[in-house]
Structures are given as structure tokens and as C-alpha cells.
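Example (one chain per record):
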Amino acid sequence: MLGNNDKSNIENVLDNYLNSKDINFEYSDKFLDFGSITYTEKTRAVIKVQDGCNQFCSYCIIPYARGRIRSRSKKSVLDEITLMAKRGIKEVVITGIHVASYGKDLKNNYFLIDLLEDINKIDGIERIRLGSLEPTLITKGFCDRISKLNKICHHFHLSLQSGCNKTLKDMNRKYTVEEFENVTNLLREVYDDVILTTDIIVGFPNETDEDFENTFNFLKKINFYKMHVFKYSPRKGTVAAKMKNQVPGNIKEKRSKILLELSDSNERKYLESYIGKNVDVLFEEIDGDFIKGHTQNYIMVNKRGSGIVNNIENVYITDVNKDSLISEK
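Predicted structure:
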């Protein structure tokens, strides 16, 4: 395997290997900056600010494959977002392999919340959306500061993975379900319209029926808008792949189905609660008789009739379908 910084040197690497049967890799502790990205959406740009991970969750190969955390420089990030704003982009998504670790390697006391405060000042950018977050990032101090940023989208994807403390410990996650619940309470105190989504792994080694029931009950209690459910699959080289009591595939399938049904039910109830309300929508594309876009808290809206792409408009919600809101007015 070669990293991005070695790709242009692949011929020499192969020659050296054929001659000496040896490859020497130089580990870099710096973020490999490619400059401005090419975005694929007309209204939204994805800005990578961080790479690598130091968490070493027992099921994950990323720290071995992608290395330790490396943060992109403040100047590089802000310059790119300023350029995106000049090109008419209204929304940026701040992402990374473990974006909550941003700045921890910079040694200048400049962290993710500091970066978000600076992005919030950039003219032309109207929405700042965050990628998947480690729950331990969300503290009272973080919430006090982020609540003052008017461009932050009220949608947070918090990676839970399990609602059972025993399983979380086996996964080498760095929090308990009680601490996670406190995080959701903090966010709901700050934003009354916050949307919370999460990732869940079912069928992790040693997960018993009782453990899964604990997870199910916890998920009902937290009441996520959506849940991305994954059936555990071992990754060679990870601790979890060597664990005993691997869960059979049919049990994983059954547990996955139960959680997906809960997720669909939650989503429907959330959507129906918006009927009769007005919401601000950043429209992104025209699809037949509808123009489509997302609310600030990342709910899809389909509005019948004409509209302007890359424009934020206040619309009245009249109905819902499977996974989106409908505006017929």
C-alpha cells in the first residue's frame, strides 16, 4: 500500500522492491494538503480539515492504514472556504477521518471550535455543516461557544456504535451510554430543532441478546432522527477480528432489521411533526415538477413548482413522503 504522497513515486518504489525486496516508508506527521478541492455539488463543498485517527477502536483498521492524526493549517482551510464563497457556494461541510481531533497535533491551542468560529466570519458562506463527530467533543464549553455561531447547521451526526456499556468497552470506545445521553441533552438544550443521527454496529463479538436489548432500549430513549445500521464484519489486523464468540450472520441480520425499522419509524414521526410549519431550504436541484433541497437541520424538502437553485427560501410544509418533506405551495 502506498499513501497519496507516494503515488507519484510508484515506479521507483517498485524498482527498489524488485532489486532489494524491501520498502522503506517515511511516516509523515503533517497533513498532506492538496489545495483547493473539486466539489461535486452546486451548492455545497466538502472541506477536509483533518486526517488519521488515534482512537484505536477494536473493530477499526483506520489508525493502521491512515496513520495518526494530522490537522490542516488554519490558513489553508480558511483560504479554500473563502474561495468557495467567491464561487457562490453557500454551504460547507467540515469533515475528516476523526474531525473532533482537529488541532490536537498543532500545539498552538487552536482546535475545531476555534476553526468554526473563524469560518463563521467568512462572507458568502451561509451554512456550516459538521461531518461525523466523536461524542466526547461535545462539552458544555463547546456548546456555549457553538451556540453563538449563527451559520452552524443544527444537525449533528454522533457516532454511538452501541447502546450497551459492555459492548462499548469491548469496542474500545471512550465513553459510556450515560455520557452519550448527556451529550444529546446538551445539544437539545442549545437547539430546539436539532436533528441527531448516528451509526450503530450490530452483532459485535460477544454481543448477547441482552446486550442488544440494552442497545435497542437506549436508542428508543435517545430518539434519533435516523440511524445508520451496520452488521459487524471483521477486519484483518484488528483486535475484534480475533475475539471469540463471533455472532452468526442470521442473528446480525435479525438485529439489523429491528433497528432499521426503529429508524424508519423515528424518521416518519419527525417528518410528520413539520406539517403545517415553515422552514428555510437551500435548494440544490430540479427534479421533474419539484425543486429539492435541505433544511438547516438536514431534512430533504421537495417543493412543487419553480425555484432557484443555490437559493435559500422559506417554504410551507404540506405533507411528507417516505424520506422527505413536501411543499405544495
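Caption: Residues 120 and 161 are 30 Å apart (CA to CA).
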